[in-house]
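Let's practice the habit of predicting before peeking. Look at the sequence and jot down your guess about where helices and strands might fall. Then scroll down.
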Amino acid sequence: MEKQTYTTCSPEETEALGAAIALQCAGKKVIAMYGGLGSGKTAMTRGIAAAMGCTDPVSSPTYTIVNEYRGRRKVCHFDMYRIDSEEGLWEIGWEDYLNSGCLCVVEWSENIAGALPRETVKVTFETVDEETRRITVEDLC
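Done guessing? Here is the structure:
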């Protein structure tokens, strides 16, 4: 398990890191994000979507559970905060998304830990101060 830690000092730097990560995820299905509210998960997703050629605005799917962004590779952005059972996960079509070829970017992935594929990229966000984030990326390669 390879692990790298980065420090970003703005949402723009977090987006740029997301873009760099996305470009290394050709064979991956899922990027699982761990971190509290306001820690940079959606900012990173903006960078991931941009790197995949998506031009639609990226926003947190808090109420919709999933937002889809089309580009060279479709990005499916999930917010699993309200998913509290395997049944709820299957109701949203999780398995279909995994098999669709899209890159699934999952916020609050700790809520579905047992349903994540083995080869999942794990990204953990730590808020250092108002602008600074310490971001650890595991299993990218």
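How did you do? The first helix runs from residue 11 to 22.
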